[in-house]
Design a protein that fits this description.
The structure is a homodimer. By secondary structure, chain A is mainly alpha-helical. The first copy, chain A, folds into 4 domains: 36 residues; 380 residues, no CATH class; 45 residues, no CATH class; 119 residues, STAS domain (Transcription Regulator spoIIAA, 2-Layer Sandwich). Helices cover 64% and strands 4% of the residues of chain A. Chain A contains 28 helices and 7 strands. In chain A, the strands form 2 sheets. The first copy, chain A, has a 5-stranded mixed beta sheet with strand order 3-4-5-6-7. A two-stranded antiparallel sheet of chain A has the order 1-2. In chain A, helix 6 packs antiparallel against helix 16, helix 11 packs antiparallel against helix 13 and helix 15 crosses helix 16. The longest helix of chain A has 30 residues. Chain A starts with a helix and ends with a helix. Chains A, B: One of its GO terms (biological process) is transmembrane transport. Chains A, B: It comes from Patiria miniata. Chains A, B: It is a multi-pass membrane protein.
Chain lengths: 600, 600
């Protein structure tokens, strides 16, 4: 088949691909599940949607706090994701919205608001811009089928940065429990500042915070108990017991909302009785729905503030989302596809940025609640999103009374379960080397921020994975010319090794020798190796010796031919090469030249 | 041999290693070359040292400008490297000091000085701290033999970031040639600002700048001509001609100094005749030697300002240095060793930080001059360093008159030769894929800064290199149970692939099947793969099916045994596994359970 024919075929295939109904249906998964939707499932979806909604309201306010944004931005970020994911998502269980880790990342790529307030809030403009670019990048990656890049983040790195995030987020909230104020960005500084300011603790805040945590622990135990009982009850048990257990389960699941409502009630009662100022409260929250508008692309220094966040935030967001989606897909027996999930998440973020959302992703805790509530389709998300919109429209005045310590308790309690200390024991038992990856991720994350910790962890993982690529083993067959045979591939990380081997075995020894490089085992080479061979061939020529290649496979030979190295002949076999090299009268070496020169 | 015996042997070997004279001599290379030093070479070293010194003086002042530091810091950085490298370095040709690329990087990790001056200078405290930490990190990497990490930076990425640096640095100086003022960090903003402010051009500055560039071009042509002539002349030609050509060569080599001196002379004459203010000049330069003191470790927010610079600066510095060292080592027939070069460079930087130096490395242009001047040993560096000290002690008052346009001309002219446009053609011819790496390095470097461009380029390179690791090919042998056989290694990037294959081939199909995973071709697995197998085994068990492993090599079996996966049996062969799996009565699958449940 001629190259023209191939091109015509390829074009036709691409054309057919772009206009195939199936391909477009894959892009809009709702076209597959909606027609099959059974109306009797609608109650499941409504109950699940409401349960998730009860969780997302307090979480959204609390997470906005982590993201260093005005609390209402948490709610702005909590509804578009649900709507968009309905159209583009493949998993019925996933609920997209603000999460603890995304909020932590967003806090790092902001510009401090210079409004003279005591709180170290960031300018939301940049967080919204980050959501927009994050969306664009995720959609682009999905279209280009780049979902696989997150495969290079090993589960050890994920565990390390998750634990470090949990510690950073949790300790970042201790000050709100204690009612003290200071500004610090990373875990280590937080720890230092907590001890420094511990004398300023406000006892009312502290008492309230501890009460909230205790209540949360108790309600969680209720939920676990009811969960177990619900599992044991079969459909034949009396409906009263079923109702009791179900009610307890809902109370346990809605614990965040319950704690926040009770704590706010206490504060409201105190303030109504003129006991004002004892407990640090949220204060005024902007009322009403967010405006529908483009992000502010005119904001100064966008790139200065967002920088590496433009890479990290879309990636980590996708990583969280796909891990959750694949987990629930297995559990509930359906399929998700990485690149479509990227596109879905991208639309959630881009769409969100038009209503002042900051970057969001799938939330593990809320998706679990969704799944446990037997959600039947992504339609549950519509209910959740609508509940958030209603809260924005009517509930904001009540948010005034929410105590900061209660929100802090919600955060601390929810990130506590993100701490994965068991992995240390597992790694110790299974493969100790990888503890190095964990350490290289965890500790830098605490001190430099999770984004740098993650990058360092990935770096260490890759170094361990690639070590053999940089140090391919080789064998030397003594003689003149020397025959050097590399045992594995020669790709760019091995360029330095190649040079060192040639130098140490043949070129920089007392009497330089010619070398035959046997490429029998080499699958592929690249530009760096070709360039290195060119340099080496020149160096051999200068020393009056020869460098030759033998047994090159066609892929290797093609690259060498294109590089067109004058002084690097390619022969079929070691024998031919030995014969030719011995036959050519070598040019005088510099040493001989000098010997010639001296008498004059 | 028992494990105890091995340990004893290892300890003994380590002990001997630490106390062997040879090992310590390798750490202080001057102990090898100094005893063999022939006094008749001293003239070579002095001439080379002076020639390099003439180049480093104007370059140091100009590069400090790139680094956004007061000009005198260029000189502070230009002498300790020469002294330290004398002790620890292996290459006679290398001269360590400020370079264009290091200066560009240093500019990015500073804290703006709030001294109300018009120039956007950074606080030198942080640059000096960066030098200190850069030194410590380089020494540490050298001791731990981590010199190989730079092997993962391919020559394509190096070419991309070098060209982008050259463009950024060059365009960053255009404003000084035009005599206009604005503040911008990256190439794209510079370009924008130049066009915006072009109307404010000061013609005196511009004329002077262009004159300087023309003179530099002319002097370089003189040098090349004299170089060729010198090469053609043999020792029998009349000494007059030799002297003429050699003089021309020195004039050409010292062109930077000549241009700066003449330009300063013109300014001095103008100012003496009351034509003040026409040409933008350097102004007051702190006089005298720098104080010998520890860097200021009490400076606030060290990590905030230095952050990723702590990784990038030591690495790029070493990369520049080792590339130059290996190049000259080949050319002049001696050896260098990566890890010793790291240690040498580390001491240059750490030592430098005690006299207010910013991070330095080997300079290509000055090393080339050193080599062309037939330097015989690192002693030439002592001469260069002393010349810089003398300049600091006595010449600083003269620096007042140096026109900024002249320094800008020196920079623009020297970075021009760093532009590597030819690589585009080479890559197009040799291996088009790698153009992607070049693009991914070059353009982000221009807009986000070279450090991010370099990281993106390395990322793209690694993705292309590791693509087969993430997508190992496999073969399915139909039947019940299915036999799945991966053809290459299974390491963490393949964990996702493994899950997808199991899901799509066996678990999430209409009738789930048991699977036998044939590990015949698998060399090694890691924690992520073991964890994935554990998850998969659980999922198979839940579906009432079996997942089993056969033909595991000992290294793979060891990790699986340690992971201790209850529901993942390991059998010797496919036959045994088939038999056992068929024998066990499978637990009812969820589908069957549901069928059972419905009638009730």
């Amino acid at each position: 088949m001629s190259s023209d024919q191939v091109q015509t075929k390829l074009k036709k295939a691409a054309w057919e691909y772009c206009f195939s109904v199936d391909v477009w249906k894959d892009r809009f998964p709702f076209t597959r599940w909606l027609p099959k939707y059974r109306p009797n499932k609608i109650l499941n979806d409504i109950i699940a949607g409401l349960t998730v909604g009860l969780t997302v309201l307090p979480q959204a306010l609390a997470y906005a706090n982590i993201a260093k944004l005005p609390l209402v931005y948490g709610l702005y970020s909590a509804f578009v994701g649900s709507f968009m994911y309905c159209i583009f998502g493949m998993s019925k269980d996933i609920t997209v919205g603000p999460t603890a880790i995304m909020s932590l990342l967003v806090a790092d790529y902001g510009k401090p608001l210079d409004d003279g307030s005591e709180d170290a809030l960031n300018d939301p403009t940049y967080a919204v811009l980050l959501a927009f670019f994050c969306g664009i990048i995720q959609i682009g990656m999905g279209i280009l089928h780049l979902g696989f890049v997150t495969n290079y983040i090993s589960s050890v790195v994920i565990s390390g940065f998750t634990s470090a995030s949990a510690l950073t987020i949790g300790f970042g909230q201790i000050k709100n429990i204690l009612g003290i104020r200071f500004h610090s960005e990373v875990f280590t500084l937080d720890l230092y500042n907590i001890f420094k300011h511990i004398g300023e603790t406000k006892w009312a805040d502290c008492t309230l915070g501890i009460c909230c945590i205790v209540t949360l622990v108790a309600l969680r135990m209720v939920k676990n108990k009811s969960q177990n009982s619900l599992n044991q009850l079969n459909s034949s048990s009396p409906w009263q017991r079923r109702v009791i257990w179900k009610t307890l389960w809902i109370i346990g699941t809605g614990r965040n909302a319950i704690v926040v409502i009770i704590a706010s009630g206490v504060v409201y009662a105190l303030i109504s009785n003129d006991y004002d100022g004892y407990i640090t409260i949220t204060g005024n929250v902007t009322s009403g729905l967010p405006p529908f508008q483009l992000p502010d692309f005119q904001a100064p220094g966008i790139l200065t503030y967002l920088r590496v966040g433009l890479i990290i935030v879309p990636l980590i967001g996708f990583l969280e989302n796909i891990a959750i989606a694949k987990g629930f897909a297995r559990q509930n027996g359906y399929r998700v596809e990485s690149n479509q999930e990227l596109i879905a998440l991208g639309f959630c973020n881009m769409g969100g940025s038009f209503v002042s959302s900051y970057p969001t992703t799938g939330s593990f805790s809320r998706s679990a609640i969704n799944s446990q509530s037997s959600v039947a389709s992504p339609l549950g998300g519509l209910v959740t999103g609508s509940l958030v919109l209603l809260a924005l429209a009517f509930l904001t005045p009540a948010f005034y009374y929410i105590p900061k310590a209660a929100l802090a308790a919600v955060i601390i309690f929810s990130v506590f379960f993100m701490l994965d200390y068991q992995i240390v024991g597992h790694l110790w038992k299974i493969r100790k080397w990888e503890l190095l990856t964990l350490i290289a991720t965890f500790f830098p994350s605490l001190h430099l921020g999770v984004e740098y910790g993650t990058m360092i962890g990935i770096g260490v993982d890759l170094l361990m994975l690639l070590f053999p690529v940089a140090k391919p083993s080789y064998k030397v067959e003594q003689g003149n010319p020397l025959v050097i045979r590399f045992k594995q591939g020669l790709r760019y990380p091995a360029a330095d090794r190649l040079q060192t081997v040639l130098d140490e075995e043949a070129l920089l020894i007392d009497e330089p020798k010619s070398v035959i490089l046997d490429m029998k085992h080499i699958n592929a080479i690249d530009f760096s190796i070709a360039e290195e061979l060119q340099d080496s061939a020149k160096a051999f020529e200068k020393a009056g010796k020869k460098l030759a290649v033998v047994n090159a496979r066609s892929s290797v030979k093609k690259i060498l031919d294109r590089t067109d190295i004058k002084s690097l002949p390619i022969y079929e076999s070691v024998e031919v090469a030995t014969e030719r090299i011995s036959a050519t009268r070598p040019a005088p070496s510099p040493a001989e030249m000098e010997a010639f020169d001296t008498p004059l």
